[in-house]
Amino acid sequence: MQQRKKHRIAVIGLGMRLGMLLRAASAEGWDFELAGYVDPAPVGLPLLAEQGVDAGRSYPDIQTMLADGSFDLVMIGSPNHLHLTHLAETLERHPGHVFIEKPIVRTEEESFEAARLIRERGQGRVLVGLVARSAPIVRTAFERLDADVIGDIISIDATEHLPPAHGAYLARNWRRRVEWGGSYMLDKVCHDFDILGRMVGARPVRVASFGGRRIFNPEAAQQSRDQGPAILQRLSGWNAAPDISGADMDVTDHQVAIVEYANGVRLSFHSNTSAAAPERRWNLVGRTGTLTIDLVQNTLVVTPLAARGTVEQLRWRGPQGDSHGGADQAMARDLVAALDGERAFPVSVTDSLVAGLTVMAIDRALSEERIVDCAPLWSRLDAAEAGLAT
Questions:
Q1: Above pLDDT 70, what percent of the chain?
Q2: Is the per-residue pLDDT at 288 higher than 90?
Q3: Going by C-beta distance under 8 Å and a sequence separation of 6 or more, which residues neighbour residue 223?
Q4: Which of 118, 176, 265, 370 has its CA 20 to 30 A from that of 88?
Q5: Average of pLDDT values for 103-118?
């Protein structure tokens, strides 16, 4: 990253996610001053210390922090149920840019309220941490699709299979409860539905879903989730559960979804939080070829329909120990460019709200055991963003 203006940053919720992002940003060469943070249990501090980043002052509350000076960027990484409140407080007191981790909010009503709030107070100032948008492999996939290498997309098969240690982390972390995190699919898979929506170029019209909890469940066979002490090595953060039994867990640990988009594309999505063979893959089948993006192997393959066509195979290697294939570093560059007015951030507020509402519709289809019509969601979102009554 080239030499730039030094940015002054404040953090609300210094958890693992913002700790990882700021550590990557510092390693990438972003010259910033972390003035301070608000967090009663900042589990991201050790990650900053690894990179020699001074976390600044620990403030008792948001009001005190925002009154203590001007900031170029306020970053919100608190648990999801606090996002809307923290966003509203920040937009009221802070005139600059605000970065908020995905998902912006947990519920449909919160989505419409966030849309109204950002329209009234934060237009052009809110940046959403859907980190996959910045990943080099994803940007290349967009380029290939925009170049029409596989023709019109007909159907998509997508997966998100987590390794057991990651699923165990979710079973202990605050994300295990709907009241704090929303749903498993919302918190973990909204990335995928954001990317897939951009690839398809349309919004969903109807969705269906099936799922449940059969892995991190007190009644499940212990051997299906017991990996010994290694499975508990990840810090579990605020309100962590004492074990991985799932005794108070109410989100799914496996779920499938079917989505039909307005332009006729059909998608099947399979997620599982404890798979022996981890996989995160998007397989897009078009009229003239297939595009396969594997985010575990970090490979992209274009296979043309023509028998004598060539096959393009690309592979990326992210920084050692990085779980996002270089996306954190790329998003740091995107943040700096947005702060300095050089280019727009790669994901818009509307994109992020559409992705979130798509997953919320999927979760409603699961809970209500029916196919959900998405049209009313888009009507209400568009109205909220336009400042009309909903």
A1: 93
A2: yes
A3: none
A4: 176
A5: 98
Overall average pLDDT of the 104-127 stretch? 97
CB atoms within 10 A of CB 386: 11
Q: What is the pLDDT of residue 230?
A: 47
* pLDDT of 225 strictly over 60: no
Mapping DSSP onto H, E and C, the string for the chain reads CCCCCCEEEEEECCCHHHHHHHHHHHHHCCCEEEEEEECCCCCCHHHHHHCCCCCCEECCCHHHHHCCCCCCEEEECCCHHHHHHHHHHHHHHCCCEEEEECCCCCCHHHHHHHHHHHHHHHCCCEEEECHHHHCHHHHHHHHHHHCCCCCCEEEEEEEEECCHHHHHHHHHCHHHCHHHHCCHHHHHHHHHHHHHHHHHCCCEEEEEEEEECCCCCCCCCHHHCCCHHHHHCCCCCCCCCCCCCCCCCCCCCEEEEEEEECCCCEEEEEEECCCCCCEEEEEEEECCEEEEEECCCCEEEEEECCCCCCCEEEECCCCCCCCCCCHHHHHHHHHHHHHCCCCCCCCCHHHHHHHHHHHHHHHHHHHHCCCEECHHHHHHHHHHHHCCCC
**Over residues 179-199, mean pLDDT:** 97
Q: What is the pLDDT of residues 23-50, one digit of tens each?
A: 999 998 899 999 999 999 999 999 999 9
**Can you give the pTM of this predicted structure?**
0.94
Q: Using CA atoms, how far apart are residues 296 and 127, in angstroms rounded to an integer?
A: 26
Buried b (16+ CB within 10 A) or exposed e, 263-282: eebebebbbbbbbeebbbbb
Q: How far is CA 87 from the centre of its chain?
A: 17
Average pLDDT, the chain: 92
Asked if 11 and 42 count as a contact pair (C-beta separation under 8 A), the reply is: no
